[in-house]
Structure formats: structure tokens, C-alpha cells
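Can you please make up a protein's amino acid sequence together with its fold in C-alpha cell form to help me picture the idea?
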Amino acid sequence: MKFQVNQKVIALTNPFDHTSQQRVKGNIHTITKLSWCHNCGANVINIDNQPSNFETVECDCGGIQSTGGSAWTLASHFAPITEESMQSLAEAEEYELAAVIRDNLNLQNH
């Protein structure tokens, strides 16, 4: 899935712990920065310009790199606000998340 800066996304998960970028499953966020793991190429995003309290971040693959002062989360923890995402979430029986996307799409179309 390709993400862009300023794109609206829905959080699919809550953070794992206090070191994770803060988000609430089902809330809409704005992508402010994009990056990729230097080791495996995994896409990571910064939402709402959240700063990091740490100097480095570790990817699931074990790769470690500088945070550059920003908090990062794997892009797979988010879905774009699109019809396709809404349908995928409904098929996965994530009806509440699908409804949030539907409502946001309706607001964009009015």
C-alpha cells in the first residue's frame, strides 16, 4: 500500500507500549512523514507530527536507525481512507473500522 504525506489514515491498532507512537484504533490521523527501514525496506510513517523521545528505533527485522526526532510506526498499522480499505475491513469483519471509513468518505463527498 502506498502512502503519501498529508494523507488521512485510520489506525488499525493501539500502540504496543509507551515507546510506540501514540494512536487509538479507529481514530483518523494525518501522515506527516514517510520513511523506510534501511535494513528490510519496511514502510514506516509518522502521524500528526509526533516527536520521539528516543534517538533510535528498531524495526521488526532487527534493523536499527535514527528516529531523526520523529516517532515511527509500521505503515501496516494503518489503512487509507478509501473504498477499497472499507471493503477489506468489512470482509475481515472489522465493521466498526469500516464504518469510520464510510463516514469519512461520506463527509469528503459532501
About this structure: Residues 8-81 form one domain. The chain has a mean pLDDT of 93. Residues 95-108 form the longest helix (14 residues).
